[in-house]
């Protein structure tokens, strides 16, 4: 257990540390903006545009198919994690972060230019899914690099807080994506939004990626990685070495992430579709409710990272998942009231548990793996957890609602996953304070 450090012993952030935090925050925010803008468009407008024949005969099935395209990208996250992990452990974290940012942005912009089913037929949904796969590949390699850049630059007593910065890229990306969609739905008519308004958020990615590229190019490589190169301890086959000695850690990281990712994607995509389609709420207020909840997610994630520096990573995860489990009961009762204030407030409260079970993740995962396979380990574990958790969570939630007619079934689904992730976190020996250098 690390020695406690008093506040007076803790120096301020150096210029390079501030630059690293800003770089990881800006880059992951842009990456997740790209990823989430698709998820939200899928819940609002992509079904009639790209699955027109199905939408005409069965709008509900078209919505399920549209939400399923969100999950398809998750299946390719492990591939992105393997590639980025392989080269991130050999060439450096910085190079792979630039690569994933440009790849994600290019795919997002191209989605904004795609012709619809009416214009090119079945080629439209095929092209849409291919570009979504590219997004998934990029996302699979992004998180691990951003997490390690922040944690490996961090002072020992601030790893949790530093590691929370790439984590808050998720709610910031969600705020940006939802805010832009809200603006477009406000300034356009429904016909205009369906005709061209939905494309604008995708095309804006070009400007954001250009900004992110310049920011990430200016940051120095992780000091831990530089130390590894100087001592020539880089592995010739990090993926093989990873599963030879760290299979248990990969499995645990995946299980720990499952419930957070599933519940998170209810906030990101499903509640928007549920509020507008099932409850008949207006699109604008529902999008604003998501922005409000995302602000809570941001603050609680930072708090979760900082809290884990004080009470430990495992305990913080346990508190987060216990809260999400308990909140599932009142959550859907409040949402089903049809009152937009209760709708927004109930989702906001949910993000308290999401923040506690997301903020410590970067630090905890980094502390669980040796440096030579760390990028591969955290990336692959995260990607597998995303497949088991959020990949098809909106689709599963929609199917549960259509087959049971009871929103509580969605809550029970998340509660089961909370038990799984709670058990996964509990199985980890508290890693706070582990040596992140080449001796680990």
Quick one: how many beta strands?
0
Which shape, going by the Cα principal axes?
Answer: globular
Assign the structural class, choosing from mainly alpha, mainly beta, alpha/beta, alpha+beta, or little secondary structure. Answer: mainly alpha
Strand content: under 5%
- Major beta sheet, specifics? none
Helix content: over 70%
The topology string of helices and strands comes to HHHHHHHHHHHHHHHHHHHHHHH
Cα separation of the termini: 16 Å
Low-confidence runs: 1-10
- Average pLDDT works out at 86
Helical segment count: 23
Radius of gyration: 21 Å
What would your notes on this structure say?
The protein contains 23 helices and no strands. It is an all-alpha fold. α1 packs antiparallel against α8, α1 (15-44) crosses α16 and α5 (77-88) runs antiparallel to α21 (374-388). The longest helix is centred in the middle third of the chain and has 32 residues, at 247-278. The chain has helices spanning 15-44, 46-50, 52-57, 59-74, 77-88, 93-111, 117-120, 123-152, 159-167, 169-187, 190-197, 199-203, 205-217, 223-230, 238-245, 247-278, 283-311, 313-335, 340-356, 361-368, 374-388, 393-404, 408-426. It is globular and about 60 Å long.
